[in-house]
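As a warm-up, study this chain.
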Amino acid sequence: MISIALLERTAEALMAKAAIEIPDDYLAGLRRCADTETGDLSSFVIQAMLENYEAAKEDRRAMCGDTGVPRWYVKYANDARVEGGAVALEAALRRATAQATAAVPLRSNRVHPLWRTDHNNNCGIFAPEIDYAFHPEGEWIDLTTVHKGGLFGSDYRMLFPGDGIEGIRRFFLDTLIGFGKRGLACQPAIVGIGLGGSKDMCMVLGKQASCLRVVGSRHPDPKIAALEEELKDLGNRIGMGAMGFIGSSMVIDCHIEVGYCHTGGMPMSVHMFCLSSRRATARIYPDGKAIFRTDPEWFTNYMRRPTVEWESPHSMAAE
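Now compare it with the structure written out below.
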């Protein structure tokens, strides 16, 4: 049984880590951009951000004044049990969010859409969001918090099978150029693309691709992996760099996730994470251990399974 007190303590620690500490994979990608960027203003912004990240870590303060909208991704291993059950887990995550808002501190960004009322703690109706996934083996629970900007950096278009790869390229470029010219995202950033699924699932896949995969990871389908590389290169050749200034470093990486969709369509979403790529993960065990890491390990072969039943690699190897 996993202690609810341990879950809450770990969740609070994750909120601070996400707000203050840049993940190593993103930091390495940004440093590569700093080495290759030729635009003067773009180079200045990247260098200033690298210095800001070091200052934030040293001072234990949030790396950006706008700390985004905190959200949670929870992955249950099949045999995991939580003290008090799933309702107690959700209550712990809401308490951790409220407590971290005061303690880190985080900017209280959550308000009612009409009345603009708030509780000064980033909690409210459907806030923070909590998404779930599952794993077929184990007794652990993974908690991942993501602090993503909540205003811009996302777009959606219903493409059709006849649009093909060329249509994907066109929408990708339209979106990035629009974001850069209108100041609708903070670049350079990890770009996530959702292809297929229902309309809502398409948006979910794109956001998760941007927020829950590490820089340098590639989709297991080699053709999709090749498209990720192509779009990353394409995004860095449109003449825009950091924060939309002239340059060549708009995209730290490009990640694509796909889902089966209606036969008549090919929905696509595009999401840019943030120049402050804020995420943190911990795996919590029933013996009281909590192991922190920066790779959410969200997308697995189990999650991407295309068949009705799941056959684990262990069972297939035994045959």
